[in-house]
Every structure is written in C-alpha cells, then in structure tokens.
Specification:
Strand order of the largest sheet of chain B: 2-1-3-4
Shape of chain A: elongated
Largest sheet of chain A: 4 strands, mixed
Distance between the termini of chain A: 27 Å
Order of helices and strands of chain A: HHHEHHEHEEHHEHHHHHHHHHH
Number of helices of chain B: 14
Number of strands of chain B: 5
Largest sheet of chain B: 4 strands, mixed
Distance between the termini of chain B: 23 Å
Oligomer: heterodimer
Number of domains of chain B: 2
Helix content of chain B: 55-70%
Strand content of chain A: 5-15%
Structural class of chain A: alpha/beta
Mean pLDDT of chain B: 83
Structural class of chain B: mainly alpha
Largest interface: A-B, 84 and 87 residues
Strand order of the largest sheet of chain A: 2-1-3-4
Order of helices and strands of chain B: HEHEHEHEHHEHHHHHHHH
Shape of chain B: elongated
Amino acid sequence: MSAHIFTTRLKCLLRDRQTIFWTLMFPLILGTFFNLSLSNLNKSETFQPIDIAVINDAGYQQNNDFKSVLENISTGSDQLFNLTAASKQDADKLLNDGKIKGYITVGADIGMTVNDSGLSQNIIKSFLDSYQKTSSVTKSIITQDPSSLQKGLLDDLKSQKEYTLEVSGNSAAPNTVLNYFYSLIAMACLYGGFFGMKEVTDIQANISQRAARVNIAPVHKLKMFLVSMSASLLVHFIELLILLAYLRFGFNVDFGAKTGYVLLTTFVGSVIGISFGAFVSALVPKGEGIKVAIMLAVSMTGSFLAGMMYQDIKYIVAQNVPVLSYLNPVNLLTDAFYSLYYYDTFTRYALNMGILSAFILVFCTVSYLIIRRQKYASI
Amino acid sequence: MPVFKLYMKVIKKNLPSMMIYVVVFLGMAMLFAANSSKSQPKSFSPQKTNVAFISEESSPLIDGFKQELSKNANYVNIPDETEKLQDALFFRNVTLIIRIPNGFTKSFMSGGDVQIQKTVVPNSVSNAYVDISINQYLNAARLYVKNIKGITQEDLVARLKTDLAVDTPVSLQNMQADTENDFTKNYFNYLSYALFSVLILGISVIMLTFNEKDLSRRNFCSPVSASRVNLQFILANLVFTFSCWVIMVGVGIIIGMGNSLNGNLAFFLLNSIIFTLCASSVSFLIGNLLKNRRAISAVCNVVTLGPCFISGVFVPQELLSDTVLKIASFTPTYWYVKANNQIASMTNISTSNLQQIFYYFLIEFGFALAFFAVSLAIGKKKRMSSN
C-alpha cells in the first residue's frame, strides 16, 4: 500500500510543471546568471601590473637613479608597472583614451598626472612617494653622520628588504563570490516549501478536491501524509543534488573538501524547506495566494539577508543584529555551507545545524498538531 | 474606440495589483541605485584600505609605524579571534590583517631579521598598495638603525616622521563625471529591470484576458475590422506603456535627482523611452505567446533577470567577461546600459559623443521594431488558428 501511495504521489508531483519550474529550473537559471555575471568579480580584485607612462625628456634621461629604479620595478615576475616611455603629447593622449592610469613627469621634482582618483593611481603615488622618501632619509643620515657613506650606506640602500610575510589564515581562499552561490542553494532549499505546501493542501479534504478523494481511502491519515511527504522529499532532494552538481561540475563552485557534510547540509535544507511549507500551509487554512505570498516573502527576505542580492548584507546583519542571522533559515543554511568551506573547525557548523534541527522540529510538530484528527462531516 | 475602452477597463480592474508591482519595483530600483552610488571625490584623494592591525606588543616604534601607515589605511577594530578575523576577510570588511609578533621591536632595533605577518586576500590590489608603505617605513628605519649607532626608538620615530613627510605633487587632467550622474545612471540602469517587469506583468495579463477563447471569438464577430482592432489595441498598449514610464521616471526624478537637471538628463530620458518602447514590444510578444496566467511570473522573471545580469545592470559591464558581453549584445538591455554609461561619462556634448549615443539608440529602436513585427506575425497566425 505504501508503495502505491508513494508512486502515485511521485507522479502527481512530477506532473506539476509549475512547482518543478520554481524548485528546479529557476535556481538553475539563476545559478547560470550568477556564474555569467560574477565569474569575473574575483579577477577585478586581483592585482595586475598598472599601465603607466613616463615622459621621456632630458629630465628623465639624466636622473639615472630614478630611471633604473623605475625600470627595475617594471620588469620581472612581480612587476608593479607596465611602463611606456612617451612624449608629453602621446602620454596625454594615452591618458585620455584610458590606456594608462597616469604618467610620471621627472623635472626638478617628480610629479604625476592622472584623470581619476582610484587605487591604481594611489599605488603610483605611493611608489613615487616611497622613492623620494628614501632619498630624503638618505640625505638626513648623511647630514647626521657623513662617514656613513664610507660605511656602506649605499649598499644598505640597494638591499631593500621584504618586511612582510604572508601567512594564510586557513586552507580555503576568501572567495567572495561563493556566498552568492551558497545563498542560492539555501534559497532553492526553502523553495521546497512549495512541495510542503502542496502536501498539506492535498491532505485536507476541505481545501482541495484531491484531498477529498484521498481521504475516502481507508488508509491512516498519518501514514498517507508521511508517505506523501517522503515522495516530496525525494523529488526535492534530487532536484537539489542536480543543482549542486550543476554548480560544482558545471561552474566549478568550490564547496571545500567535506563532501559528505555538504550533502548532509543539503538534505537538512530540503527537510527544512518542505517542513516550512507544510507549517505555513497548515497555519493559513485557506487561500493559496496568501500561502504562496508568505512563502515567497519569507524566502526572498531571507535570501536577501543572507546576502544573495548583495553579499555584504550577510556580514552587516551578523555584526549588528546577530539574533536575526540565527533566526533566518536561509542564512543558517548559507552559513553552514560557508563554515564547511571556510573554517577548519566544526563549531559554527554544528551550531547552524543545531538551530536548523530545532526549526524542523517546531515546524513538524505544529503542522502535525494542526492537521491531525480533522474530520469532515460535510464539505 | 470600443477596443481601446475595453483595454482601459481591464487595466482599471487590475489596477491594485499593478500598482503593487509599480511600487515594489520602484522601491527596489531606488534601493539599488542609492546603494551602488559611491561618492567619487572631485579631487585626488588618498585611498585608504581597511586593515586590521594586531600587535602583540607595544613600543614607540610600533606606534610610529602605525601612525605612518594610517596615511594609507583605515584601522578596523576586530577582536583577535580566528573566526572573526576570517569572517572580516571573507566579506572584505578588511582586506589585510597585519600581526606584529611579540619581540618584534627588540629584534628590529638590534638589527635582527624580523617580519610582520600579514593575512590577505591573495594577489589583491590593496595588498600591493599597503605593502609598499610597510616596506618603505621599515626599510627606512633599518637604514637609521644600521648607520646611526645607539639611536633610540623615540628619536628614530621622530626623524622618520620628518623624513617621510614627502608628498608627490599630483595634477589632474580632467576629472570624470560626478556623483549625481552616478545616481542617475544607476537609477536608469535599474529601471530597465523594474520597468521591464512591470510592463511584462501588466501587458501580458491584459492580453491573456483579451485572448480568452470566448472573449476573442465574441470580438471577432463585431463589425470592426481586424486591423482597426489591432490599431486600437496597440494604441492602448502605448498609452499604458507611456503612463508606466512617466510614473517610474517621474518619481525617480522627484525623489532622487531633483538637483541634477542638466543636459545629460534629457539624453537619459530619451534613452529610457526608446528602451521602454522595446520592452513594450517584448511584452506584447510574450503576451501573444503565453496561454497560462500562472506562467506569467516565471517567464517575467527569466526574461527580465537574465539580460539584467549579463548586460551590466546588477554587475557593472567592466566586470563582465568578453564572452558574456558578446552574448548580452543580443539583448536590447545591453545597448541601453551602454548608452546610459556613455551618457553618464559625457562631460561635454560633442559630435563624436552624440554619434555614439545615437548609434546605440538606433540599435535599441531596431530591437523594438523587430520584436513588434514578430509579435504581429504571431498574433495573426494565432487569430487564424483560433478561427
């Protein structure tokens, strides 16, 4: 009997194209768009040698020190600049066409010309400042102790030391784009609410005709409900797996090495989505429109607060209203994926999963208490 | 004009739900535009990166160093806990974490080999930027320590402070457009999402009503020629489109950009109205194709979100890859955004500027015509089959 209910229910769910679109196709499409538009976002942060020009006049040619320093820093594997030597006229043209970020003039003083005030321009300035600072330090040391020249000040000057040592915080790179994908999966989990909603609608005989038919059958209601629910869970979980696989293998979205836990999180996500839908549907007795509206409002607001539209929001919420980030199931799921990827420890992951389980428990209990033992004398 | 009147009646009936769409999308456009408009300084100003500075010891040298570095860095206070620091780095609250190990000063003053630990977003620009300053300061300090024997920390810091007070003169050639244009540009860019959604939702609801089998059969019985029906319908569509445009652009002008009435705004308006025509004919096409009311929101989401993502509405065009932009150039949104960006960056109205902008307008207009023609053809075919 269970098998019969299960397969019938499965057919029922798969034939509802509307729900399949929102729970499977929509996240896939959105994921594709995310990938198309965000794939370059990390690159924009990456340092690329800055295109600059230097005015190639007598002043520059005579200032050998500066010339060699500038040329030195514009070659090699860790070069800071892409240097072009040009006449003033050409440099102006290059600057106005946006081909270079700025150009350097070497006269009595060293100066620079730019069109804009950004990080690249500031790096050029820092470099020039740095060069001039070094010479001012040298001068001041020589005034203080003229003998320092003989004692190898110039050699010291040449041996510039690297004073920073890069230590990586942990094994995973802080790749901002990932949060968008994690929150997208979390949103898809919550969209499972459409299934949960359907299940409750299709078991209450005063709400849908299908439920009226099903209620006539001599099967215990709880059994009917649980079997139908597991059909929903199966469909939704498979949809989520498709989404995961699509993101992981199609777009190379990194989930870290803890694959088993990622799958577990996805499963819990599916359960919370479906139980959330059931909860809403049971609380709001009539009106499909209102149910859908509540579901969408909660999942969209949740996604927004979890950083799906603008990822800084997640951090802002966590900093200022931490309670909100623990009450938002979308954020909890997003954060669970994030902790799996980014932390070496499991504390935060466990906390997220614990709260999610509590939510599931509440949703299921309340839904059960509402829909149990309803009898219909007449419909 | 019975068809025109009927159209207006249908709108009136659906007015509450349409107003909700308008208000929601208007709110979103406002929010996005306000959020993404960064104020750009009009003069050259030092850029500061957010840095978490953690020192395991304190000494005059470190204080001096910290002060010097503050020329290029904003210090953000973050508790020294691994998880909090990692979070801050991931969400770019800071782009660099500097940690000065215990015993740094002592070892440095005696000429020892020491290093500052930094945790960074790998290969990032801000990393390169702060690196220059750190190395600069400590290398200069090393010169002093090595060459002037027995220099005290206080003396060293004071000397460095005067020595390092060098400022390279920067001249600006011509600064790009200002903040107000930035808001206007963003608002108009987001409008392509908001207005497009409202038009698709509105027009397709109306067309579905008209295309109901019984209703359309009844209408064909009437002694009004098909071309007249069509003409009135299109006219009504244009009126609806234009009202939506007036509301959404009007509110935007009143609320957000009241003080930026310059020549550029006229071009923004022209651009948006051409794009609106285009959106209207796309909506007309969708309305002709759809059969099911419940599919409207699905189609609307895909058709509006898609182009916005790949054409530079949500993510600026400069950050999109060439392939994506090539795909995007098959949508009118791409050209609309391109025109907007061009208009925003226009500091003077010159022939070469205008030529470019009008070229974009022409392409958008071409899209509008093409969609319109296709939907007319499909509409006709549909009429034939339903007869």
